[in-house]
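FORM 7B: Structural annotation worksheet

SECTION A. Query
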Amino acid sequence: MGDRSTLGRPPLTERRKAETRLEIARAAVRLFTTRGVAATSVEDIAAAAGISVRTFWRYATGKEDSVQPLLTAGIDLLAGVLSEWRPGEDITAAFDEAARATVAEVPTMVALVRLAQEESGLRAVWLRAHNDAELVFADTIARSTGRAAGDLQARVLAAIVNGAVRAAVEHYAEGGRADWSDLAVVVREALQTAMRAFDTEPGV
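SECTION B. Predicted structure
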C-alpha cells in the first residue's frame, strides 16, 4: 500500500512546518495590534510563539514577513476554487464550501489587513502576496478555461479576480468587523462582479 502521507495530504512534517509558520504569524499579529509594529521585535514574536529566535529565522525573513502565511492561506484557497471552477458555473458555491476551512483565521487575517493599511512594511507584504498570487491565478484560469499557458487573457482575468478580492477584503477590514459570514458576503459580491469578465470564449 502507498504511504498515507502522499494520498491527498501533505506529509506530517510539512503540516507541522505549515502550522509553525501560522503560529508565528498569529503571534506577530497579536503583538502588532497591541504594541504596534515598531515596538515589536523578532525576540518578542518568538517568545509569544513559544519558539527560539533561531527557530524564528528558520521560518521567516523578518518580523513583517512573518505574517505572510496568513495571507497566502486565503490565496491558496482561491487558487483551489478557480482550479475547480468552469465558465458558466456559480463560483460562489465553490468558494463558500472551500472557505469554511479558514473561518478560524478570519479575525486575525482581518486585523492584519487593517494594520497593513497603516504600516508600510505590512502593506508591502500584503501587496507582494497578491502580486505573486496573480501568476498563480493566471495559470489556474488558463487551465480551467481551456486557454494556453501564458495566455494574455488569462493574465487579465487573473488581475480582475485578484484586484476584486483584494478590494473586497480591504473594504471589509476598513469597516472594523471580523465576522466570517459578513466577509463572505462581501467577497462573493466581488467574485460575482469579476466573473462577468469570463463570458468570452478562448481566443476572443
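SECTION C. Observations
The first helix runs from residue 12 to 35. Residues 1-7 have pLDDT under 50 and may be disordered.

SECTION D. Sign-off
Analyst initials: ____
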